[in-house]
Design a protein that fits this description.
The chain has 191 residues and is an alpha/beta fold. The chain is built from seven helices and five strands.
Length: 191
Amino acid sequence: FDFRDFFTIKLHIIKKVEKFVEENFKGKKVMGVHFRGPGHNIEIKRQLINLGYNCDSNSSPEGEITAVPYKEYFRLINRFIRRNPESKLFVTSDDSTILNRIKLRYGDRVIEYPAFRTKGGEMHLLKKQNKLPNVSGFKLGEDVLIEALLLAKCDVLIHQKSNVSNFIKLWNKELIAVDALTPAQVPCQVI
């Protein structure tokens, strides 16, 4: 069965995706980067521990796991850039801090969709704690759907385990997708 048969994407979403691709991806080799914020880390704690990260929630005043696996992402991004010197990075994250750090490191190479983001990510869970302006769940959902569809249009995707990355891989079964936290599965000849 084709996963896409179970979805009908509204025309205004398709038009936003097509316009963004035309303006930002056309004629370029693009690596999609889906990088979750530290609020997601409870779900990937075992992977982080195996990679040597301190996942002691007592080390954070809020009791959160604050490790962010930049090293694993940067290693894969750098390899991709070495093989594709003119390439671009389409970066998505629910955490503005992560996006800003990647932009600082890779500069004009970074492409981003103007989605709503927060410091720390997980905005659907942390709305009150983040003191966000009145942002509707519809807007947050539309942003994540558009970003997921855009990631599915990239040449290669690096990601962490998440429902968004699962959706992307089902939406585009031909996409080369690599879990950044599982180094053993990274096909060196591809990235």
